[in-house]
Amino acid sequence: MSVDDRSLASFRVSMRDIDIYGHVHNSRYLDYCEDAVVEFLRRRQILSHFRHTSSGVAYHVKKAEITFHSPIDLDDVVEAKVDVEKIGRTSLSFAIELFRQRDGAHCASAHFVWVCVGLSDSRPTPIPEATRAALSPG
After folding, report:
1. What distance in Å separates the CA atoms of residue 32 and residue 9, rounded to the nearest whole number?
2. pTM for this model (two decimals)
3. Rounded to whole angstroms, how far apart are CA atoms 97 and 107?
4. Taking CA atoms, which of 84, 99, 102, 115 is between 20 and 30 Å from 37?
């Protein structure tokens, strides 16, 4: 259910992201993936569906899983692709893929699960129909 096959987010790796071994620290990959999901929502013009002030609900990260395939180094340009894997009753699953631009290497695969929760009690609540429709293919 990606917007298209083009990269959704592209960024250059900064020195602050590098660990003592000279490549991107593992924890930064999650930041890259989260940024890619936000860019995915922005490009679909539905970011407001995920702001609690405008949607009346919030989304909490339930699960973040990443598999590392190839290191990313200082000054590499990273491209990210995002797909909505599943829209459940109260949760959303995203698949994120990170690629190194210079050689096209597949660097990481990530999966996020977000749960829609009510603002007053932080308990799971159904994803609003407008959000569900906006995320559906078509």
Report:
1. 9
2. 0.89
3. 8
4. 102
